[in-house]
TrEMBL record:
GO terms for biological process: apoptotic process; regulation of canonical NF-kappaB signal transduction. This is MATH domain-containing protein. Residues 135-280 form the MATH domain. Residues 224-245 are annotated as: Disordered. It comes from the Eukaryota.
Length: 281
């Protein structure tokens, strides 16, 4: 039987060793590949973080540059706008002009308001003059009687006054005062009617105290024969009929002039209107 050459065992052993070495190298290669992948991932992450940091830094730097430029521009403007600067002078003149216009507008506004008050006062005086009578008689129409009485009850209204009247062209000046829910002993139960002697320009040539008879009538709009009339003779000792020291004297008249429950029932109030007819004789 032929013998195997002596080199055969050596070749086989070498093959095994090479195979083992190849396996080791392959394992190392796999480990290196894994390590390379990990390094690549780490590097990519680092690149991303770097770009983020770089972007933030550039934004902050740009903001700083913008703020610095603004400061520089403001500084130059301030330097150019010195005490003798033409632009500063123009601004000052503009400010002075605006201030002057505002003052002028304020003066004009006050003037307009004052003129408006004067016009209102003149208009009121004109209305009073147009409604003033010089024959000693007041025919006084009171509209919205019930709503006005409610205003009295709620405290919004106290009393009503008629337009002034003169007993003659240069005679005594007077007006009427009505309490739609009564006054004094007539409060809540009656309409109260009073005469008020007023100051006028001719008082110094008139005889005092006031002594003229006063006829007060509440017109019955349903039947004139049922008018309610009371006659008042002035008390010469009463302060109400002395020469007025103020615009008006203390009122004097009839606190129980007409019972409230008779007004609608007996025809003194029609369509929410009543009439007083008062004559100084």
């Amino acid at each position: 039987m032929p013998r195997t050459p002596e080199t055969a065992p050596s070749d086989s052993k070498m093959t095994v060793q090479l195979s083992q070495q190849l396996a080791v190298e392959r394992k190392r290669n796999d480990e290196l590949c894994l390590r390379i992948e990990q390094l690549q991932i780490t590097l990519e992450s680092a690149d991303i973080n770097y770009e983020i940091l770089k972007q933030k830094f550039m934004e902050q730097f740009q903001t700083f540059q913008d703020e610095l430029n603004i400061l520089k521009r403001n500084y130059h403007k301030h330097t150019e706008s010195g005490p003798n600067s033409p632009s500063l002078g123009r601004r000052r003149r503009a400010i002075n002009t605006v201030s002057e216009q505002q003052n002028e507008l304020k003066i004009l506004t006050n003037t307009v308001e004052e003129n408006t008050r004067n016009i209102d006062d003149i208009d009121l005086r004109l209305q009073i003059h147009e409604n003033t009578r010089y024959n000693g008689r007041i025919l006084w129409k009171i509209d919205d009687f019930h709503s006005r009485r409610q205003q009295v009850l709620s405290g919004e209204l106290h009393a009503l006054h008629s337009a002034p009247c003169y007993s003659s062209d240069y005679g005594y000046k007077f007006c009427l005062r009505a309490y739609l829910n009564g006054d004094g002993v007539g409060e809540g139960t009656h309409v109260s009617l009073f005469l008020v002697v007023m100051k006028s320009d001719h008082d110094r040539v008139l005889e005092w105290p006031f002594q003229k008879k006063v006829k007060m009538t509440l017109i019955n709009q349903q039947n004139r024969r049922r008018d309610h009339t009371e006659v008042m003779t002035p008390n010469k000792d009463s302060a109400s009929f002395q020469r007025p020291k103020n615009d008006t004297n203390v009122a004097s008249g009839c606190p129980l002039f007409m019972a409230l429950d008779r007004l609608d029932a007996e025809g003194f109030v029609k369509e929410d209107v009543l009439f007083f007819d008062v004559t100084v004789e």
